[in-house]
Amino acid sequence: MRQLLQISVTSFKMAFIELKANKLRTFLSLLGITIGIFCIVAVSTVLDSLEASIRTNVASLGSDVIYLSKWPWTDEGGEYKWWQYMNRPVLKVKDLKALESKAQTLRYSTLLYDKNNVTAKQNQYSVEGITCYAATPNFEKMQNFEIGMGRYFQPQELNGGNNMVVLGYDVKRELFPAGNPIGKTVSFMGRNFTVIGTMKKCGDNIAGFNFDRGLIISFFAAAGIEDVNSPNAGITLMAKAKPGFSSDDLSTESEGILRAEHKIEPGTKNDFSINKLSQITEQLNQVFGMINIVGKIIAIFSLLVGGFGIANIMFVTVKERTKIIGLKKAIGAKRIAILIEFLMEAVALCLFGGCIGIILVFMLALVFTYGMDFKVSLSLENIIYGISISTIIGIIAGFVPAYSASKMDPVVAIRSN
């Protein structure tokens, strides 16, 4: 064991001597390994971070929330038949009341009207392209935003259709760059609204809400301005299950209640869709799976090129040290010692290339985290994964050159030029 350790240390030293002596040759040989390990570890790291972000997002919104609308989030078993969905009726306040009065599995529910591309103004400041979210009570209990300044609506304010507004983080920053907006007036959709609160920065969520570039008002205030029963109105009925009940339990009960409310005959398709966050996560998992496969295919080809490069540099190294190998064998070095020496050197070269690839992934993670506001973490598991692959490639690529070195005849080796 001690002898093996000495051989390993010597081999690693020889590998670094080789790096210094032939910098360009070694760099070109290691490039394939570096790119391959970078691809594998980068893909795994980004996908792991995306999955963690999605899980956190789903957990914050609640996996027990369903979203009822005329529009399905995904195709309902085949082609996305938008021309059929377009003719469906929008959900109304009476649907919300029917659900609240009859559903036994329901904890909270809210009706939401959203209008895109709204322009809000305040004195000389204006912000364009924002989304107005008009909700009934309980909306805040099913979404993951937090109030930064001021407060959220009281239920009676929402039900009364008061002209009050809660501003998103970016909207507040652009309309009130250097002041407290609470109590001030903001105009949009042809009406003046009093600011009662602002939201903390929260980013997009998996359900498609961007509260940073949005604002929240009462559903009934919006109904006094817009035709919320129009076929083109963006209406969503959100429902959250009671503790002890799943989203499937709530879906089944909600479907029966709305079918009865819409007087849909047995055997006839629903004129509404029940959407769940699990639908999005399933589709994203499929996409991530394809990205993972493509990334690994690219990485495999890079590793093959890198493996051939390492094998080539090791054959050259064996040839350059032929006389040294002969002398070592002449004074009693065993074949296994020679084989391990060159094998360890190949592994050391691959590990060096792999470490460069992992460092590049770490730098990429920093760019994503601090430059693009998306947290990417290089886990210990992925570091070990990259190092393990580097080691395996080194063993595979270095075995044949190491084996040929161990089989050399000492006399022939010493006499070689």
From TrEMBL:
This is FtsX-like permease family protein. PANTHER family: ABC TRANSPORTER PERMEASE YTRF (PTHR30572:SF4), MEMBRANE COMPONENT OF TRANSPORTER-RELATED (PTHR30572). InterPro entries: ABC3_permease_C, MacB_PCD, Macrolide_Exporter_MacB. Residues 297-410 form the ABC3 transporter permease C-terminal domain. Belongs to the ABC-4 integral membrane protein family. Keywords: Cell membrane, Membrane, Transmembrane, Transmembrane helix. Residues 26-252 form the MacB-like periplasmic core domain. GO terms for cellular component: plasma membrane.
